[in-house]
Amino acid sequence: MNDTTYTDAELAELDRIARQIDIDAPAERVWELIVRPGWYVNDGAVEADPDLRYEGDVAVVHHPTLGEFRFRTVELDKPRYAAFRWIGTPFRDESTPSTLVEFWIDERDGGGVTLRVVESGFSGLADDPAAWLKEREGNDKGWLAELEAAKVFVEKSAPAPTTRP
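and the corresponding structure tokens:
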């Protein structure tokens, strides 16, 4: 995504990332993870006890090697949908650029769930498409790893799903 020129339609398509993964665990157990702001700030494995604090309604996640990240809860609809604003750095005020991170938990026939994530709003991070496309590129690869980390974390701590007849 370096010196490539994109059409407006292509940029609109690149303004979001959508990924999903099947997880062999009940929706309630997956919910326990996704409701936690910034669970996806890690080195490839979900932290059981993250460094998480609140400054008003902003959750601040501190990772020893990755740094500090801020999130604001937008909506929680237990146990199916959660949405957060991933607030850029440096955090100044409400006008600090952010992306919207949305999670859906869909039960699968036969047990388990499909966890879907959509991160959108990259074009609002910078006026120059090259700058926000660079930010998006890291997250595009990152969501694949983070969903796999979620699967491992939830499945190792969850009872096996019950199979429906």
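(Above: one complete record from the training split.) The mean pLDDT is 89.
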